[in-house]
Design goal:
Shape: globular
Oligomer: single chain
Number of helices: 10
Distance between the termini: 56 Å
Largest sheet: 5 strands, mixed
Strand content: 25-35%
Order of helices and strands: EEHHHHHEEHHEHEHEHEEEEEEEEE
Radius of gyration: 23 Å
Structural class: alpha+beta
Strand order of the largest sheet: 3-4-5-6-7
Length: 412
């Protein structure tokens, strides 16, 4: 039985994985799933959800093994991520730039035999290094949730077209043409890992099937980088194939009708002009021309910004005491001399730290870094600037940080 049938069974208990990549449920005397959904509803009754259905809440519970406390924490963190990044309106407010449209491979082919949209990504042909050299991280931070929301829109539209309750997607990830240098570019790989982690964390239980085809010999090492972030409920949905075309073509056609699969991948679907690669539906990536690479021009500091030097191998922490619940802590900064690691966290009375913005490198030497968080609880909040990875270069930080009260504004 699939998740789409959950409402037809009373009671239901999470049981095992279905052959179609969905989730089976069995009846029983203990209504484990129903009880957990009700408990989660009560726990997050103060939250505004973009989807308040039982199926939506059930997704968070499934990946947390029906631990309501963990599911609540995960959902609240995701809701804050949606708020900070404007995810609810991003399909209307953001359009990918020319570089992403041309060189990031992703698009929908058709539907699988279970009604789920089928996406194709030519991972082996994406020039992640070139994209890293051509885009600031702010562009990725907009593109990533935009792509995720497109997945959800396609799932919704598939359900509307078929009249079925479709909740999942199938993705084909083609590693043919993989160049090892793409995966030795650490900043580029960090972006890839963050994309995978982001989807699995903020859109749990949305995968019906993942086909990995043309996997190279080094694939186990690549997979090891992301496997720790994959929920156990998703592992059985992943099918990995090497370069045996007959083998993976047969597997694809078992779950995808030929007329819904590009001819390039063993189906019969082509563009109107007969192109078997279906470029009207998705591009196959390619090397990003160096003419797109970003220049070394500094972003311009604003007059009201303060200045601070962060020595080679050093770090600086800016601490703020927030007294009023739901105050907004916001920041703007740029650096001279290269990028910087940045983190925002709070500490409770026992000294335990909670990350709002996990420590990661930001391209603040290429573009103004801006952001904000809602401080739901009073306490100490810390903005950390870390240059410990740079043993030779001092970074000059230009920054402005403010705490806005719920009803008024106070600048620091």
């Amino acid at each position: 039985m699939s998740l789409t049938q959950v409402r037809q069974v009373q009671p239901i208990v999470f049981d095992q994985f279905a052959d179609d990549g969905g989730t089976k449920f069995k009846t029983g005397c203990v209504t484990k799933a129903n009880t957990a959904v009700l408990q989660l509803k009560i726990a997050i009754k103060d939250c505004t959800l973009h989807d308040s259905s039982d199926e939506y809440l059930l997704n968070w519970l499934i990946v947390q093994d029906f631990n309501v406390t963990r599911a609540e924490k995960m959902l609240r963190q995701s809701l804050e991520w949606r708020r900070v990044n404007g995810v609810d309106g991003i399909l209307q407010s953001y359009t990918p730039n020319e570089i992403i449209k041309k060189y990031f491979s992703m698009g929908q082919a058709g539907l699988d035999k279970f009604g789920s949209p089928v996406f194709v990504c030519c991972m082996g042909r994406i020039d992640f290094r070139g994209l890293h050299l051509s885009l600031v991280k702010k562009e990725y931070f907009q593109f990533i949730p935009w792509q995720f929301e497109n997945f959800c829109l396609s799932i919704k539209e598939a359900g509307e077209r078929t009249g079925e309750n479709i909740e999942k997607m199938t993705i084909i990830m083609d590693y043919e043409g993989l160049a090892l240098r793409q995966y030795t570019c650490k900043p580029a790989m960090e972006i890839v890992v963050e994309m995978i982690k982001g989807f699995l964390f903020h859109y749990p239980n949305h995968l019906r099937r993942v086909f990995i085809i043309n996997a190279p010999k080094i694939f186990p090492y690549l997979f090891a980088m992301v496997k720790p972030f994959i929920p156990q409920t998703d592992i059985p949905k992943i099918k990995i194939f090497g370069c045996d075309t007959k083998q993976w073509t047969s597997a694809l056609l078992e779950e995808i009708d030929a007329h819904q699969l590009p001819a390039f991948y063993g189906g019969t679907l082509t563009d109107p002009n007969g192109d078997p690669k279906c470029p009207s539906k998705f591009n196959m990536g390619g090397e990003v021309p160096s003419s797109y690479y970003l220049s070394n021009n500094q972003p311009v500091a604003k007059d009201y910004m303060e200045t601070m030097n962060i020595g080679a191998g050093g770090r600086k922490k800016l601490k703020f005491k927030v007294d009023v619940p739901n105050s907004v802590l916001r920041w703007e900064f740029i650096t001279e001399g290269g990028d910087i690691k940045f983190r925002v966290y709070s500490k409770d009375s026992k000294g335990n730290a909670f990350d709002f913005v996990p420590l990661s490198r930001v391209d603040s030497h290429l573009d103004m870094e801006e952001g904000e968080i809602t401080c739901e609880e009073p306490g100490k909040y810390v903005l950390e600037f870390d240059n410990s990875f740079s043993y030779l270069r001092t970074k000059k930080l230009r920054y402005f940080i403010a705490v806005d009260l719920p009803s008024a504004s106070v600048e620091i």
